[in-house]
Design a protein that fits this description.
Blueprint: E1 5-10, H1 18-31, E2 35-39, H2 42-47, E3 51-53, H3 56-59, H4 81-93, E4 98-103, H5 105-116, E5 121-125, H6 141-161, E6 165-170, H7 177-185, E7 190-192, H8 200-212, E8 219-223, H9 229-240, E9 244-248, H10 260-278, E10 284-289, E11 292-297, H11 298-302, H12 310-320
Parallel strand pairs: 1-2, 1-4, 4-5, 5-10, 6-8, 6-9, 7-8
Antiparallel strand pairs: 2-3, 10-11
Helix pairs in contact: 1-10, 6-7, 8-9
The chain binds 6-O-phosphono-beta-D-fructofuranose.
Length: 323
């Protein structure tokens, strides 16, 4: 099949490295004489026919900028068959040969629906949550963890000066990667993540253990949705006698310029995407494992085996918890 026109969209939560990927895709497309279109506002824009032709001038200065120049959206309606059908029709009318989707698991499910409508799709993992388990790394995760670490370190310094404890909430939706990597990197004391949940009583018990062992400002990192951190901070203050504050790390994790690691990843993912397109191989998700870029069927990517770093979690336990 001869490929002339490709399109790219970003979907779900934005992730640092999306713009870098767009930059590389457009530059390689120009070298290969492929027309490349951006779809504005993710699947919502696809449904509403929001196509913009991209060129190298438009993307010249975006590589180090967070967010996504194509904008993104959360678009629940894309679960409806008629919405997917119309979106596929829009792609056909535009004579787009391949659609590149950059996003997380919801975006991958959207990609699978389009494949079922006969659309050629390549999916690139872009989500700070790092919750696509077939790949070791998703775009944005490295930057988000670094952002979370700077935030946590700053707050820890002031808390420790006043002998206060602090409970942090980090993002991750149903994935504990940001919590684990930021807790390890900033030497926090207790962690609560969905991959190995603990009860409120266990959490309080672990904080008490820190205090009994002369840690006057214990730090707790909680993945969002695990606990109400305000309540936890109040209870910890009551139970331990240490003044506990709470702090939601929040959207700072998703903003800002991509790290070098995320930019390098973006470059690798974009190159592999174009290689697949040139080889006429579609409906693949790009990933990286043990530093090697690979691709698998998008549907299989969604059901891939669980790939959580239990070694790192065990190391964290070994350093912090009583036997
Ligand atoms: O998927 C990325 C993410 O930042 C999650 O960590 C978080 O749960 C969610 O998006 C927040 O979504 P929104 O920006 O729609 O509030």
């Amino acid at each position: 099949m001869e490929i002339n026109k490709i399109a790219v969209l970003t979907s779900g939560g934005d992730a640092q490295g999306m713009n870098t990927t767009i930059n590389i895709l457009v530059r390689i497309a120009a070298l290969r004489k492929l027309e490349i279109f951006g779809v504005m506002n993710g699947y919502k824009g696809l449904y509403n026919n929001e196509f913009v032709e991209l060129n190298t001038e438009m993307v010249a200065n975006i590589s180090s900028i967070g967010g996504t120049i194509l904008k993104t959206a959360r678009f629940e309606d894309f679960m409806k068959k008629e919405v997917v059908e119309k979106s596929a029709e829009n792609l056909r009318k535009m004579e787009i040969d391949v659609l590149i989707v950059i996003g997380g698991d919801g975006s991958y499910r959207g990609a699978v629906s389009l494949v079922r409508e006969g659309i050629n799709v390549i999916a690139i993992p872009g989500t700070i949550d790092n919750d696509l388990r077939y790949t070791n790394k998703c775009l944005g995760f490295d930057t988000a963890v670094n952002n979370a670490c700077s935030y946590i370190e700053n707050v820890k310094q002031t808390m420790s000066s006043l002998n206060r404890g602090v409970v942090f909430e980090v993002m991750g939706r149903y994935c504990g990667d940001i919590a684990l990597y930021s807790a390890v990197s900033t030497a926090c004391d207790i962690i609560a993540i969905p991959e190995k949940p603990i009860t409120k009583e266990e959490l309080i018990d672990r904080v008490k253990y820190c205090v009994e062992n002369k840690n006057h400002s214990p730090t707790v990192v909680i993945a969002e949705k695990m606990f109400d951190i305000r309540e936890i901070a109040e209870e910890l203050t009551k139970e331990t006698g240490v003044d506990f504050k709470y702090s939601i790390v929040g959207y700072i994790q998703r903003g800002g310029k991509p790290s070098v690691a995320d930019k390098a990843l973006a470059m690798q993912f974009a190159v592999r995407t174009i290689e697949l397109i040139e080889d006429g191989i579609f409906n693949r998700a790009i990933g990286i494992r043990d530093d090697k870029v690979f691709d698998i069927e998008i549907e299989k990517a969604l059901s891939a085996e669980y790939n959580f770093n239990y070694d790192l979690l065990n190391l964290f336990y070994m350093l912090n918890y009583k036997k």
